[in-house]
Amino acid sequence: MERVDQLTPSDINSFRTTIATTTLKPGMILWRFASSLHASKFGAYWIDAKTMAEIMRTFSTLNNYDLNLKKHIIRDSLAVLSNWGTHCEYRVKIELKKEVVAHIGTIGTQQNFIKANLNDKIAADAAVKKLVGGKSDNVQKMIEQRLGGYTQYVIPRFRDRNLNQTDNEYARLLHFSHI
């Protein structure tokens, strides 16, 4: 496998389960979300048409098309943390033109922690400090959790910012619109 097709540690941490490496065939349709109108349309993380349909069906089932609700559903479904700076405002659909190496697996639950300030909690402070050996420096507080659970395709080769954003040697853009 070429270096450009290898997963980063961050990629590996995005999976919940075993990661299968495969070659995707020309003609396959993939989707992703982009942050803004001018954001790169290509990136490493993708979902298939079935997953996109399920996410979009959630909006119509709830009969609520509020932009903030849509973003929340997308973030939960794809385990996108707030501090990643991804606003998930645009849908991107591509069709593969050439075989590409992809790593497939279930999106793992992602969590965001901060160091807990136990000095503000007098009653709980003593009990928690006792549990962590008298040091509150090791206590982390979870401030966000995104469940994930859908299948994701990680294509490291698509991180290349030099790829033409509408038609390149690997894929062509079929759809780009606001969610």
Q: Give me the strand/helix succession.
A: HEEEHHEEEHEEE
Global shape: globular
What count of helical segments does DSSP give? 4
Structural class: alpha+beta
What level of helicity do the residues show? Answer: 10-25%
This entry's quaternary arrangement is single chain
What are the SSEs and their pairings?
Layout: H1 9-13, E1 20-24, E2 29-34, E3 45-48, H2 49-62, H3 67-78, E4 90-96, E5 100-106, E6 110-115, H4 122-131, E7 140-146, E8 151-154, E9 171-178
Antiparallel strand pairs: 1-5, 2-3, 2-4, 3-8, 4-9, 5-8, 6-7
Tell me about this structure:
The chain has a 7-stranded antiparallel beta sheet with strand order 1-5-8-3-2-4-9. A two-stranded antiparallel sheet has the order 6-7. The longest helix has 14 residues, at 49-62. Helix content is 23%, strand content 30%. The model has no long low-confidence stretch (mean pLDDT 83). The chain contains 4 helices and 9 strands. With 179 residues, it is an alpha+beta fold. The protein has helices at residues 9-13, 49-62, 67-78, 122-131, and strands at 20-24, 29-34, 45-48, 90-96, 100-106, 110-115, 140-146, 151-154, 171-178.
